[in-house]
Write a structure and sequence with these properties.
The chain contains 12 helices and 12 strands. The chain is of the alpha/beta class and about 400 residues long. The chain has 2 domains: about 240 residues, no CATH class; about 140 residues, CBS-domain, CATH 3.10.580. It is found in: Cell membrane.
């Protein structure tokens, strides 16, 4: 899930929201302002209901962010890097750079989010009681009670033992501990996720046909998402298992053509190549998407400073291109996905997404571009491995006949 709007960083972790958040934010705010709040406490002005609904929706999304930050913080403490957190239509997603190193680490990382939501539910419950005890605004008490209930429900829903929910991670940790096989544990968790998703789809369709149209459609949507996400998670786990032991350097496109940050967009799109390894613009950049859909951007010392997706350059109006530098339109290095040549390719898989802005820039130890990786590079590696499987290893004993 991609972030449409970047909100900044918390503890060094990129935070963003997908455009779909606007839909659920609006539904929550409207449902509270036009439904629950006036029904529970009639007689107030519409502006007061609207303000209370908006404020409650904001706090709810802050609670979701706290849930995801708990995953991220615990992941880091267990040696697992975190790329970013994205809030979207059905909650949030924390993108991690690698698998948990052990079943215990998986258990701690997965359990942190629901535990924080449960704690928030308790805190909001105590706050609602306190507000009511001191004669606080009925709307404040009602909104706080709603936040308490929704956080407890969020915690309970997330511990359902079905991937990709946190409960699916907990189930995988248990199966991994019992069997010692992470891939087999993932298969069990994703199977449970698909089964649970189809149950929700069935219940949603039943509700749609027999009176609860909107609620039924929403439940079916959640179920369908769970089925799709669990299926994708299973595929990714099998892919990572197949790529085990393969370093990034064996897949990346090495020695990529680079773009100096002081070059103008017009030069990049229209000029001839300039300098060894540098690009002032070349016929190949006009070929469209493919292996040259993005270019590493370098400073004067040759160190990478960002990534230039061709589509970003093409979005600059023709009249502005002569005065617009590459540095002004590139993806800054802090926002780009990066890797090291000797990093396991399997750890790179979760960070790969379609789109030229999502290319992974491979950096040498001195910060200079060593290569670039696109999903097509991984697919090529998988095809080559399938066409030329490694022979089985023989460890001592009598040689096979």
């Amino acid at each position: 899930m991609r972030a449409s709007i970047a909100l900044g960083r918390i503890a060094g972790i990129r935070i963003g929201v997908n455009w779909s958040v606007l839909l659920i934010f609006g539904l929550i705010a409207l449902g509270l302002a036009a439904g629950r709040l006036p029904e529970a406490h009639p007689g107030r002005g519409a502006a007061l209901y609207a303000a209370a609904g908006l404020a409650t929706a904001v706090v709810f999304f802050a609670s979701l962010l706290a849930h995801e930050l708990a995953h991220a913080v615990v992941a880091r403490r267990n040696g697992v890097g975190v790329d970013d957190i994205v809030l979207w239509l059905l909650g949030g997603a924390t993108r991690m750079r690698a698998e948990a190193p052990s079943p215990g680490a998986e258990l701690r990382i997965a359990g942190a989010g629901p535990l924080v939501s449960l704690l928030l539910g308790g805190l909001f419950t105590a706050a609602a009681w306190a507000f009511e005890a001191v004669g606080g605004s009925p709307l404040l008490v009602e909104a706080t009670a709603w936040l308490a209930a929704i956080n407890v429900l969020l915690a309970l829903f997330n511990v359902v033992p079905a991937a990709p929910l946190d409960g699916g991670r907990l189930l995988r940790a248990f199966l991994w501990w019992r069997t010692g096989d992470r891939l087999r544990a993932t298969a069990g968790a994703t199977t449970a996720g698909r089964a649970f998703g189809w149950v929700l789809v069935g219940l949603g369709l039943w509700g749609f046909l027999f009176g609860a149209a909107l609620g039924g459609l929403w439940l079916a949507l959640i179920g369908w998402f769970l089925v799709a996400a669990a299926t994708q998670e299973g595929r990714q786990a099998r892919l990572r298992e197949a790529l085990s032991g393969v370093p990034v350097r064996e897949t990346m496109t090495p020695d990529p053509v680079t773009v100096p940050e002081e070059r103008t967009v017009a030069e990049v799109l229209a000029g001839p190549p300039s300098g060894p390894g540098g690009l002032g613009g070349a016929p190949e950049v006009t070929r469209g998407p493919g292996r040259h859909a993005s270019f590493p951007v370098t400073g004067r010392d040759g160190v990478a400073v960002g990534l230039l997706p061709l589509e970003r350059a093409l979005r600059v109006p023709p009249g502005d291109r002569p005065g617009t530098t590459v540095g002004a339109v590139m993806v800054p290095l802090a926002e780009a996905r990066t890797a090291e040549p000797d990093e396991p390719l399997a750890d790179l898989v979760p960070r790969l997404e379609p789109g030229s802005e999502r290319r992974v820039l491979v950096l040498a130890g001195d910060g200079r571009p060593a290569g670039i990786v696109a999903p097509s590079d991984v697919n090529r590696t998988v095809r080559e491995m399938a066409a030329h499987p490694a022979p089985p290893q023989h460890h001592g004993g009598t040689p096979p006949a």
